[in-house]
Write a structure and sequence with these properties.
1-acyl-sn-glycerol-3-phosphate acyltransferase, alpha/beta, globular, 248 residues, Glycerol-3-phosphate (1)-acyltransferase
């Protein structure tokens, strides 16, 4: 009986998601055409996308989202944001920050209908993992956005954790912050693994998600040591995640 209920819920969820994406993409296209001539940073487009993503939480009374520390994030200015990565649901909850930033995401996602097309509208940054030319281009585009006082958001694990444990971090986000000499904001996600699975389509009925924005870390204190910077931030995220889980 429980399995049948979950199958029904997942089916309804994905059908709703597809309908929402189709409808909201029409609005995204209108938003892009109207705002791109004067909104070079595409802030309005991004905030529209935030609302689009949050609809799946607004429609589902069994998915709860708590965000703390949002006010720490800048509306304008150079900054790098990094978060642990538990599931596809991370994208939905991080849009709930309702703050300007540019995603760095795998290039394949940009080819998906509606969502990928809207990512192009937003000027998000594609990346093909393991492709040196793509990595160089990604870094160039990230620096261009930072020079326009637009923060960058990256998942330093590179891919979703299969067991919700924080995996090893890659250097990219931390090297970017060092090169741009800008603050890096660690963001902790808890409970998002209870939304969308790493593999498969079986969406879970209930989820209790928490997003915690931590205080910014100044890369200058590490004197160019990217590895030390990276490991320090990872330990901060692990410790804060354990604290949140213990308090539940």
């Amino acid at each position: 009986m429980k399995r049948a209920a979950q199958v029904v819920f997942a089916t309804v969820w994905w059908l709703t998601f597809a309908l929402v994406c189709a409808v909201m993409f029409v609005g995204a296209t209108v938003c892009f055409m109207v705002t791109v001539p004067f909104d070079k940073r595409r802030v309005i487009q991004h905030l529209y996308s935030c609302f689009w993503a949050q609809i799946m939480f607004y429609l589902n009374p069994f998915w709860r989202l708590r965000i703390t520390g949002r006010s720490k994030l800048p509306w304008r200015g150079k900054a790098v944001l990094v978060s642990n990565h538990e599931s596809l649901g991370d994208i939905l909850v991080l849009f709930g920050l309702y703050r300007p930033y540019k995603w760095v995401s795998k290039a394949a996602v940009f080819r998906s209908p509606f969502l990928g097309w809207n990512m192009h509208y937003n000027g998000y940054v594609p990346l093909r993992r393991g492709d040196k030319a793509s990595i160089v281009e990604m870094s160039k585009r990230c620096h261009a956005w930072l020079d326009m006082d637009m923060p960058i958001l990256m998942f330093p694990e590179g891919t979703r954790s299969p067991d919700a444990e924080v995996k090893a971090f890659k250097d990219g986000a931390f090297r970017l912050a060092v090169e741009a000499n800008c603050p890096l904001y660690p963001i902790v996600l808890v409970g998002t693994s209870d939304t969308l699975p790493k593999h498969g389509l079986m969406v879970k009925i209930a989820a209790k998600c928490h997003v915690q924005v931590m205080d910014p870390v100044d890369p200058q204190q590490f004197k160019g040591d990217v590895a030390a910077f990276r490991d320090h931030v990872r330990e901060l995220i692990i410790a804060e995640k354990a604290r949140i889980l213990a308090a539940r």
